Amino acid sequence: MKKIAVLPGDGIGPEIVAEAVKVLNALELEFDMEAAPVGGAAYESHGHPLPESTLKLAQEADAILFGAVGDWKYDKLERALRPEQAILGLRKHLGLFANFRPAICYEQLTHASSLKPELIAGLDILIIRELTGDIYFGQPRGRRTAPDGHFPGAEEAFDTMRYSRPEIERIAHIAFQAARKRSQRVTSVDKSNVLETFQLWKDVVTEVGQQYPDVALDHMYVDNAAMQLVRAPKKFDVVVTGNMFGDILSDEAAMLTGSIGMLPSASLNERGQGLYEPSHGSAPDIAGQGIANPLATILSAAMMLRFSLDQPQAADRIESAVQHVLAQGLRTADIHSDGTTKVGTREMGDAVVAAITTKT
Ligand code: NAI
Ligand code: MG
Predict the structure, then answer these.
(1) Active site members
(2) Beta strand pairing status for 216-221 and 238-241?
(3) Per the CATH hierarchy, to which homologous superfamily does domain 1-99+264-360 belong?
(4) In this predicted model, what pLDDT tens digit does every residue of 45-92 receive, in sequence order?
(5) 257, 260, 336: which to mutate for ligand 1, most atoms within 8 A of CB?
(6) Where are the domains of the chain?
(7) Could you report the predicted ipTM of this complex, rounded to two decimals?
């Protein structure tokens, strides 16, 4: 039986994960769900944001459903004990190198975007960000007295941008395979005109692309990609890029849809094991009030069924149930507008469950 590790975390994490678990149960599928504390919750119970027992559960599971971590009340802790270390630790220990960030604009929420409705209506793009390499992890890095440069003798800091061929190959394969399930198009985003790292990136993605003759590949510089995302976002389908460019572009793309509470994400490793979480954080400003939007987490559970649990029909059922509740006019506060019905976290989860159970 497939096993799901359920890690609610802190802040709004427990509230939104409870709704996703309710939705998973409503599908009446056979899997084993086991919960464990992570982030601030684990600091409270175990004195560490990622206890050994939680890590072990995550390693043994086929998939991890993660809420969010990072309540403000832990801000004063030393770095190693801060809740955010839990998510970084999970990525590292599980080798989660492929981050999927879909940006989907639901028909009923078109008005929530800052872009004109015609630019955004029907938007459905997928940004795939490499998550374990690039300038965020490259060595050497540090501070020193500048040995040369414009200001020799001045204090300076430096980081190393770095990608190896196998790291680029595996993320490229992921992107082409994802494109095969969509509209057969990949845009690889780089800065090969300036950076050697991204010249290698471009060369390797092009080579891997030859193994996927059915998928069209184009290349775009990151500065142009940032412009095109706000000018004509629907021109993209699958976008694949490195860690830093992906960090920035995926947040830009998320904002196009106007509602962080709607966007799921997945991070996968080479074994297809994945961690699924909403794109947003722990929202300490609204935690405990029962008003957080649970849909990003519910949609993350749908991604989990599709990518790690081999249940694409169940994923479709969740996604169409979400469409259904939006069409009914139900809205949490973050996506509420005139003429719609404001609901809380739990009511929204109940409505999704109702849509699933009445449709089957
Ligand atoms: P955030 O995403 O938590 O919140 C940004 C704004 O969006 C807030 O006004 C919040 O109320 C709202 N919001 C977020 N999710 C919502 C939802 N589901 N429904 C309704 N409104 C929602 O980002 P912020 O404020 O920058 O970070 C808060 C904490 O979360 C920080 O400690 C940060 O480190 C952590 N964080 C954790 C992440 C994770 O667990 N993977 C990812 C991003 C941030
Ligand atoms: Mg970011």
Answers:
(1) 136, 191, 223, 247, 251
(2) unpaired
(3) Isopropylmalate Dehydrogenase (3.40.718.10)
(4) 999 999 999 999 999 999 999 999 998 889 899 988 999 999 989 998
(5) 260
(6) 1-99+264-360, 124-256
(7) 0.97
